[in-house]
Amino acid sequence: MYLKADEDDAAAVQRCLEGKTEAFEPLVARYEHVLFRVAVRMLGNVEDARDATQTAFVKAFEHLHRYDPAFRFFSWIYRILANECLNQKRARRPQVEVDPELAAQGGPFEELDQGERRRRVQAALLELAPAYREVVVLRHFAELSYDEMATALGIPQKTVKSRLHTARQQLGARLFGWGR
Amino acid sequence: MNTQDDARLDAALGELTGAEPTLPAGFRPAVMDEVRRREDDVARTRRATVNGEGGPMSKKVMIGLAAAAAVVFAVLAVTGFPPDLGGAQGTIGQAKRYTAPQIAEGDANIGDPAVQQFLQSETFAALMADPDAVKLLANAELAQALGDQDLAAELGRSRFADDLAALEADGGLRRLLQDAEIVAFMRNELRTYLDDEALRRFLDDAELRTRLSQADLRTRLRSATEADLRRMLGNADFARYLAGRHTLRYALADEAMLRAMLSADLRTRLRANWFAQALRSPVLLRALSDPGVAQALRAPAMLRALADPGFAKAIRSAEFASAVRAAELRTR
After folding, report:
1. pLDDT score of A135
2. Averaged over B240-266, what is the pLDDT?
3. What is the pLDDT at residue B60?
4. Is the pTM higher than 0.80?
5. Is B325 an interface residue toward A (CB < 8 Å)?
6. Hey, what CATH topology would domain A107-180 get?
7. How far is the alpha carbon of B250 from chain A, nearest alpha carbon, in Å?
8. Is A54 in contact with B27 (Cβ distance < 8 A)?
9. Does residue B11 have a pLDDT over 70?
10. A136 to chain B: which residues are within 8 Å by CB?
């Protein structure tokens, strides 16, 4: 759903390469929300997500001459953001973690209050390995199709589906005790 | 995991969807401020990459692109590309013409019947009556360049004249040829690329030819090549020149044209001495950047003269030089 404006993107990139920096603004406007949402779910922290998203845009601008217009702009900038999120994760531990007591209790998820449910879902997401976390984030929070995910991640659709299946199994195990 | 489990997990993830944090206020202006702050550095980096200073990979890519650009540019800028687009028949004809013996110094003399015939022709009279043509021919070096029979034949093509007219109309050609980097590229690097074994292998590659014959790939190649050219050369005038030329689009879109571009005949022509000399000639480059010369080159009298087989011989004769001097004095 975010990949409909490929021609506009290519034209904007071309204008930037011709020295018209203001042409970058529509690209920021088009992708800032989706990239920020992805970053929040990848990092679990709004401030970090803001920094990662801003850095991704700035790096994209700096390396626009390396962007290949044969591919979608979103796919390219998403890879920059994903790398930035990984860098930030290495630099600091996630600030939202599963409460060991709650995890041990294993009480019915649906009986928790809404704030706690949200906290636990986010924490379960952060516990996933990055390769699994990103498929869940792209599918559920960026609302990409399998085809769009495959393009953005640079992997076959079949692999996307298989990773998503595994990721959901792991989430289910953490949230609902599946497989115990 | 069954459907019920799936729904339960979707609902859990939906808890977060309903609580998406909003982007902090001022995010976009902050990004654009940062981008503008880095504008100059970025421009320098891009120029460095274009100039091959961006490390081994970017230099390799740059050389590949430059080679492709050199071929496309050379073909279109100087030859206007063969108008007989067809297949083998046109190619064989071209090859025959370009393997014809060159004019030797002794060929052009006063007693040469071809020269005499040309000097007595209406074409010659019209040429001498045209002040622009006379001015052009009064430049000895330029006249000598035009006297090359192959170059004369190419310049006499109508498509060249059309392209020249279009370029000259918006001042693009003059700006292009006044750009030191472009001129240096044409004079030095282009020659290197044309002599490059790797480029010849690239053009000779059977797989490439097969792939180019596929419509889908051709379409992608067309857009990619144009974008790459624009990016690589990083010169706004040159970019407009390449992007705006109908011949470039046509060449890259047309299967016959692609076949011709990969033909042995074309490779021979690109490596021909006259062609390389013409491209490297500072006189010709300077002359082409002069609107007066461009106008003279597409004057009907000049076009007729260039198409006349006697012109290339006549232009080297003493009689011709005298006639030009006399005509020049009259027009002053």
Report:
1. 92
2. 48
3. 34
4. no
5. no
6. Arc Repressor Mutant, subunit A (1.10.10)
7. 20
8. yes
9. yes
10. 13
Which has more pLDDT, B158 or A89? A89
Question: What is the dotted CATH code of the domain comprising A1-92?
Answer: 1.10.1740.10
Q: Which residues of B touch A22 (CB under 8 A)?
A: 32
Every domain of chain A with CATH number 1.10.1740.10 lies at 1-92
Q: What mean pLDDT do residues B134-153 have? A: 68
> Which residues of chain A are in CATH 1.10.10.10 domains?
107-180
Confidence at residue A45, expressed as pLDDT on a 0 to 100 scale: 85
* DSSP code, position A21: G
Instruction: Determine the distance in angstroms separating the CA of A12 from the nearest CA of chain B, rounded to an integer.
Output: 13
For B262-268, which contacts have Cβ atoms below 8 Å and span 24 or more sequence positions? B262/B203, B262/B204, B262/B208, B262/B209, B262/B212, B263/B91, B264/B95, B265/B91, B265/B92, B265/B94, B265/B95, B265/B98, B266/B75, B267/B200, B267/B203, B267/B204, B268/B95, B268/B98, B268/B99
Interface test with B, best of A9, A43, A58, A84 (most B CBs within 10 A): A58
Q: Report the pLDDT value the prediction gives residue B64, as an integer from 0 to 100.
A: 36
Q: Which residue of A has its CA nearest to B13?
A: A121
**Which chain A residue lies closest to B45 (C-alpha atoms)?**
A62
- Checking ipTM against 0.90, whether it exceeds it is no
Tell me: the pLDDT tens digits for B33-70? Answer: 999 988 877 776 665 544 444 333 333 333 333 334 44
**Alpha helices by DSSP H, B179-263:** 180-184, 190-194, 197-204, 206-212, 215-233, 236-244, 246-253, 255-261
B32/A109 touch (CB, cutoff 8 Å), yes or no: no
> Per-residue pLDDT averaged across B291-320, rounded?
73
CA dihedral B160, B162, B164, B166 (to 10 degrees): -150
Q: Does any CB of chain A come closer than 8 Å to the CB of residue B223? A: yes
Chain B hits for A65, Cβ within 8 Å: 45-46, 49, 231
Q: Which residues of chain A have pLDDT under 50?
A: 1-4, 93-94, 96-106
